[in-house]
Predict the structure.
Amino acid sequence: MKLLQFIYLILIILSTGCKPVDNVITLNIWHQMLYENRKALLEVCNRYEAENPNININLTYRETEELRSNYQSSAMGGSGPEIIYGPSDQVGPFSTMGIIQPLDTIFEQQYFDGFVDNAVVRANGKIWMVGDVVGNHLMLIYNKALIQVPPKTTHELVSMGQELTVDKDGDGKPDQFGLVWNFTEPFFYAPWLSGFGEWLITDDNQPNLDTQANRNGFAFIKSLRDEYKILPKECDYETANALFKTGSAAMIINGDWSWGDYRDIVDFGIARIPMVSETGLWPSPMVSTKGYSININAEGRALEETVKLIRYLTSDPVQLYYTQMLNTQPSSKTAVLSPIVTENELLRESAKIIEVGRPMPIVPEMRAIWDALRTQYQAVLGGNVSPDKGARLSQINAEKQIREMNEIIQPGLQARVIRVIVPMLIIGFVWFLRLRIIEFLKKFKSNRFAYFMLLPAVAGIFAVVIFPFIYNIIISLSNFSLRTFRDWELVGFNNYISVFREPIFYSVLVKTLIWTSVNLVFHVSLGVFLAMLINRTLPAKPILRTMLIIPWALPQYISALTWRGMFNQEYGAINLALSKFLAMDPIQWLSQPTEAFSACILTNIWLGFPFMMVIALGGLQSIPQDLYEAARVDGASDWQQFKNITIPMLKPVMIPAIILGTIWTFNNINVVWLVSNAGEPSDQTHILVSYVYKAAFNLYRYGYAAAMSMIIFLILLVFGIVFMNKTKATDNNVY
Amino acid sequence: MKNRLKTWLIFSFLTIFTLLTIYPVLNIISISLRTDNAFQSKSLSLWQFDEPYTDTNQNEIREADELFTDINDNGSWDKGSSFNSYKTLFTDTPFLKWVWNSFLVTLVVTLTGVVLASTAGYALSRFNFIGKQFTMVSLLTTQMFPATMLLLPFFILLSKLGLINSYVGLIVIYSSTALPFCIWQMKGYYDTIPPALEEAARLDGCGRFAAFYKIILPLSTPALVITALFSFMASWNEYVVAAIVLQDPELYTLPLGLKSFQASLATQWGLYAAGAVIVSIPVTILFISLAKYLVSGLTMGSVKG
């Protein structure tokens, strides 16, 4: 009894002793703010921490897409940050999935009344986000050194653009462009739709792409590039930005986020995107807000403190501080009236641009609309589809994707059958293995040493892999998708059936096989070849060997982006070299399907051969020199030596590397994703894994993606088993 | 004479090939030296000189009508290259902290990888036991599942175990991703060493483990080096898993830190590239210092001779 009292006493002391520590609450904010904005946010949060010593704020930055997918995973897992900050269009999917809280019941109406309409983000009749800035809109930004008065209409745009597109050194290629922008991306195209008289989504959230406006828009952009030639042939965001910053482009269409980047480099002015002369309508940039939402998992005191923090972060002084530091447009009705805002020249101009803007649609269906539009738009620009057909197809595809996205498969007979069959299968499997298990137990003693050596590694690997694997099998049999994010159920083989039914699966599969085999052939042959060359006595051998390893040493995501830059049609090093040394015409590496796919393969060959080279080097070292000497004495030629000594001796080391290399290449998403910018043009450069990624994280079809990854797994499993049996890789030594 | 010619031919071929190979790297270096934070440039040269201009309206920005001296001889005005990005990286960002965090994680992963792979590979190479074939195949199968689909279950698992924001989870995952290959690699190498060596040692009274540890392991240096190098690479440059496990900026590893310079449509290219250059230095150094062991083919010849 005394002992119990004693323990009780200690518990009390411990719990009270812990109290002061418990009092400090840590609030996590995940955001996707730009580099300069992050500094301002940190400053503001530091001030709040100083005023509220019991609050500790943790800021985590993730890039927009990643923020979205990471937040989904973490909220799903029952945790995640209290506050998520981002653009308003994430409200659509988040509120549908049920992973953020409606704010109506948490804040009072008066609080919401203090903001401009745009900044209070509603969906399905509830409020989900409060914005602290308004804008994110596209506009015409012009270099004042080249243009005094910006063009007001598209006619003026074309004539000024033609004047300003000049070939200074007379090599037949313009050195200065009238206009540049990331025109292949639909977000940067959308404003023109309203300039031609329509919008891409109807009031009841249906896609509206099969319109005359869309046809005219497609044709207009194409004519700017091909007919009037005021646009570069290939121009992604980074190219456009670099051209504008170096003064090689007179105008750029870009958003308010770019001001900070240009400020100290170009003397620039801003204006509306020019009015379409034929219709007399202004193009409407999408105007959105960025703001704060609250995690569904936040509750109790953390929730109370979260609410206080959001009030502070959206308050006038904080918004005005942002305006001073970053030229942002405040969302508070009172802050907008402050001289800090009214006397800011950029914001005054920007307000005129926002007047013709339209609010960014936030429904999750926008994902499908963007995606369908991107595919056809890029096909039209690539000259593979007519504007008419492009407009029609984009409408059909958007409708189809929305149907798939919103589909909820109800569990039926299949689900029940699976529930019965799976346990039976497991029991059957154990029964099937029973003799092996008994044998294993009998012989365990004699092989104890082997098991003891093997166990730590195997245990570690399987601890990490087993759960995710089983989880994926279950998901692939479920109806897990956008609408069933928090209450999915087992439904059966529907996902597998839809994978096999879609023709795109087969074309992507063929591409994946080409991708893997071409890469592997080059990796291995280049690797072994270089290793053999380097393995002899050479001057500067250590330097060469080290240099050749560098592609492997660099972080993949950086080198892949660099290669993308090198493939640029006008400025990329590859085309420059091709035209200089081989007198070839520039190749459109990134805007034609075959070329883009080749670009990905080239990049991956570069990335992958050093690995094989190192393995081969290690293997070559293990070949005793006296074998070669003996062969030479017997008069064997170089080729005979290679065939009869080098290859068989390299085999045990290279086979595992080849098998694994195949699997890694098959599943290498980085290169394809980064070099082709997520499957561009028109989703023609996907391999299976990148397609899986897109289905899961862009289109929210988790069940479908899981089924497809199970299929990938099975393909590789069959390959692995067949290949190993053929090469006897698991058999024992060469001796 | 014929041999020297051959050597020189090979040497020149390798030199050209190497130059082509490192061109993209030079490209990254030149981005890191640029001052306009742009990813692309029309110029192919690595270093650009600061070109002086007459600032007629004294706004410290060069306008098109202000004259300049074209030192770089490319027809356009250039703001010179500088090491500013590197300076900012070390003074204004927690770069050194990231380096330290990455170093810690990588060190543990490499050590674990070498120890576990060398023992497991040995068991698979030298013993015939029930489940061996199965183990070999299933090691391989762990690599077959697309990693992106493992992220969601990883997250759920780690947060249930309370391993979010902890290096333990990260280290276990990294070690496990590198291990299957390393084990195979080690097994392949052991296979080329004649078992007669241990048998002789066993006859001399060595225990099983001692025979492995004292005789076989020292002979396997090249494979161990590759294993170490590989484990190192698997964790040093890894981003995707780190991004779900580590959310506290205090714990960021290098790739996480570097990626934070990247934002959609507004990347800090200068810092990003400078960071990338520095990240690859340790790998290069590691390779240079390990190359010595890789080359030491001394063991095998002597043993079998």
Notes: The radius of gyration of chain A is 31 Å. Residues 24-134+289-354 of chain A form a domain with the D-Maltodextrin-Binding Protein; domain 2 fold (CATH 3.40.190.10). The CA atoms of residues 455 and 461 of chain A lie 10 Å apart.
